[in-house]
Amino acid sequence: MTATLSTLYRYPVKSMHGQTLPHSDISPLGLPDDRAWMLADADGRFITGRELPQLVTLHATPDDTGLTLRSADGSQCRAERAEFTHKLPVQVWKDGFAAWRGAAEADAWLSAQLGRPVHLIHTGDTQRRVRRYPDVPLSFADGYPLLLIGEASRLQLSEWVGRDMAMARFRPNLVVSGAEAFAEDGWTRIRIGEVTFRLVKPCERCVFTTLDPETGEKSADQEPLRTLAKRRKGEGGVLFGQNVIAENAGRLEPGMAVEVLETA
């Protein structure tokens, strides 16, 4: 059976609802506008769905000039790229770097939606870099530009849990079908189309995976984190998916073959 790229996801605003893409350019920075925005407090500290679970119910759709935000009740707000003119020191985990704010209407709309003051922040021409690979640029993603998960791995986890665990819980960028469950754990380099990728580190999972990706409600039984802790425990935590870096630029679309170039 030939492994193929089955789905492309991006998340324009960190922790908000994801989008499936029919095709996309890709580069070492990742997918265009993937986690190019995030929410922060007045001090520039990042805010995610771990802290505000209702974030996952908000949708964000980028275009050439800006970003349209939409809530579950259909209300909308617009933020233009040209509004992000005020430089702000921001913090994502241990990384401190400069980003941009200034979309006042979006700040007010989001603050009302979430019930606390927040700012919408844009990466601009990001100064951030992957810690282990300082030549690789990074948006507001947790630690790496891309995350890859095998569809068979999700199905196996769902079987262990005893109910379906939607792929959206795990927020991948690249979903691969046609490989055995957890085959991606043994891959170190692959090619999709004209783009080669390095699989550099297993992804350590957190409480965010216990949130329903449609409602933001937390699983009462702490699944799938509880099962991952039993079945997929590594030295650094529970593991599911592989962090990935693109080695060159190109174009991707679902259906492309995944060629395994190197294994561990």
TrEMBL record:
Pfam families per UniProt: MOSC, MOSC_N
Q: Which residues form the MOSC domain?
A: 112-261
Please give the superkingdom of this protein's source.
Answer: Bacteria
Q: Name one GO molecular function term.
A: catalytic activity
Looking up PANTHER family in the UniProt record yields:
MITOCHONDRIAL AMIDOXIME REDUCING COMPONENT 1, MOLYBDOPTERIN COFACTOR SULFURASE MOSC
**UniProt name for this protein:** MOSC domain-containing protein
